Amino acid sequence: MKKKICILGSTGSIGKSTLEIISKNRNDFEVILLSGNSNFRLLISQAQKFKPKYIYLSNFYLTEKIKYFCIKNKIIIINDLNLLKKIKFDITIAAISGIAGLLPTLNIIKFSKKILIANKESIICGWKFISRELKKYNSDFIPIDSEHFSILKLIENKNRNSIHKIYITASGGPFFNKDINLKKVSINQAISHPVWKMGKKISVDSANLMNKVLEIIEASLLFNLPLNKFSIVIHPQSLVHAIIQYKNGLSFFSYHEPTMKIPIINSLYDNLNNSDLVKEDFFNKNSKEKKLIFFKPDLKKYPAIHILEIAKKNDVNVYLMINVLNEFLVNQFLEKKIFFPDIISKLSLLMRSKQVKNYLKNNKIKHINDVFKTYNFCKRLLN
Ligand code: NDP
Ligand code: MG
Question: Ligand 1: does its nearest atom lie under 6 Å from the Cβ of 118?
Answer without folding.
Answer: yes
